[in-house]
Amino acid sequence: MTPFKPVIGLEVHAELQTSSKMFCSCEVVDSISAEPNTAVCEICTGMPGTLPVINKRAVEYALRVALALNCEISEISVFARKNYFYPDLPKGFQISQYELPLAHDGYLFIDTENGEKMVRIRRVHLEEDTGKLSHRPEFSLVDYNRSGVPLLEIVSEPDLNSLEDFKSYATSLRSILRYLMVNSGDMEKGVIRFEANVSVRPADSDVLGTRTEIKNLNSFRAMERAVAYEVQRQSQLIARGEKVIQETVGWDEAAGVTVSQRGKEEAHDYRYFPEPDLPPLQLDPSWVEEIRNSLPELPYQKVKRFVTQYQLTRYLARVLTAEREVADYFENAVLSAAEIPAIKIANWLSSDFFGLLNEKGIKIDQSTVSPENLAELVHLVEVGEINASSGKMVLEHMFESGDSAASIVEKHGLKQITDSDLIHQVVKEILDSHPEQVQQYLEGKHTIQQWFFGQAMRAMGGKADPSLLRPILRQSLQNLEKGHGLLE
């Protein structure tokens, strides 16, 4: 089959974490836990004679995102009516932006297996969210609490050419929104929703193929599976000489297939025209610069700094900067253990520490282990007070009790054994009590040395200093091999 190249663009809809809605003073509430239809008014339900008013905080949050994505900011932008009829849209139209968006022509660098790649951002614009439908066998229910919530739409150019590109872009964008504290990134609650435009083309062609739009993907797993399936489906259609139909599809998670929903609309189908009740939005350039100067250090900036300042690998730097809370925790731990190389803190944090967080289903800011306590633990391991195996045990106790590493080591007697005479004695006892395994070693099965190491470590309660135990064990076995007997 002719090799095909995926061409993917992404539309991201992110609710902005403002206190009130986009065009009225109704409170923004949790669409999952709040009682239905309690945060509504005449404006967000589209009653006749009502007038919308633009939420300044929503504009500020949108500008934060647009500036973080290196966009050109429109000094004047225009709200428009996007006309379509659906039960969750009480006005019969959505107030959005079309011809003159808030921002345009930005870019975001993502990490790929071939290095950094620039993804162009076509536009960033503001609109209002719709209500929420709950379907039952014989009827549907509608909750208008979400109707009118400020919604930011970020549209990329079709610059993503693999699932890796797609995932890297989506996770990077979500991370930026969380760093800016304008969106929680909670896909399960629907506060951020991804829609992928997917097409394929022959690998040696630059002509774009017919695209389909996959709507409302609510998890990264669903996104990856849906896009992979759609790429494969379209490639097979074209290989058979059939045509791809431009349409909107949904993702059936249980069946693992995309399902046709409707023909894909074009802009003229929505009959856009300027919103008559809202004047053009004119931005003060000094306010835009003030917002630009207030931006925090962003994930891609932290990655570069962590690589340079802490000598981390780029991969490890990306892991530790994906969440702002994790990056802050890491740096606080490093500051608390200035004499310990940062890479040591990073390795403990990204492996055993993350494993315990996942096991307990908590976030890093919910952990009972402070950055200072983690730094203390790593220090104890690095200076040889305890070995790495005991360190993992201590970390587990720290997660349970919140106690310091030193107090746990003292309480459970986990201090590392560095008495070489005692280690010699234990090695001698292990070899004396396992003549069959010793014979296997003497016959050339040298891999059994690791088994002896485990036996000796177990005999010493896992507290032996490995840097002493290994050479003593190796020398004892070599002496047996040479016929010299064990070291006394």
Features:
488 residues; alpha+beta; Arc Repressor Mutant, subunit A; 3 domains; nine-stranded mixed sheet; three-stranded antiparallel sheet; 15 helices; 16 strands; 40% helix
Can you give the helix content as a percent range?
25-40%
Tell me the strand order in the biggest sheet.
2-6-7-10-1-11-12-13-14
Mean pLDDT: 91
Q: How large, in whole angstroms, is the Cα Rg?
A: 30 Å
Going by helix content, strand content and strand pairing, the class is alpha+beta
Strand content: 15-25%
Q: Main sheet?
A: 9 strands, mixed
Number of domains: 3
Oligomeric state of the chains present here = single chain
Unreliable spans: none
Shape by Cα distribution: elongated
- Could you tell me the number of beta strands? 16
Question: Number of DSSP helices?
Answer: 15
Task: Please provide a written account of the structure.
- By secondary structure, the protein is α+β, with helices and mostly antiparallel strands.
- It has three domains: 4-292, no CATH class; 297-412, no CATH class; 420-481, Arc Repressor Mutant, subunit A (Orthogonal Bundle), CATH 1.10.10.
- Helix content is 40%, strand content 20%.
- It has helices at residues 56-68, 163-179, 220-239, 285-293, 299-310, 314-321, 324-336, 342-360, 371-382, 388-401, 405-412, 420-432, 435-442, 449-459, 466-481, and strands at 4-15, 72-73, 76-77, 79-83, 93-97, 103-112, 115-128, 132-135, 140-143, 150-156, 192-202, 212-217, 247-252, 257-263, 273-274, 281-282.
- It has a nine-stranded mixed β-sheet. Strands 5-4-15 form a three-stranded antiparallel β-sheet, with no helix packed on it. A two-stranded antiparallel ribbon has the order 3-16.
- Strand 8 and strand 9 (140-143) form a beta hairpin.
- Helix 9 (371-382) runs antiparallel to helix 10 (388-401).
- The longest helix has 20 residues, at 220-239.
- It is elongated, with a radius of gyration of 30 Å.
- The N and C termini lie far apart (71 Å).
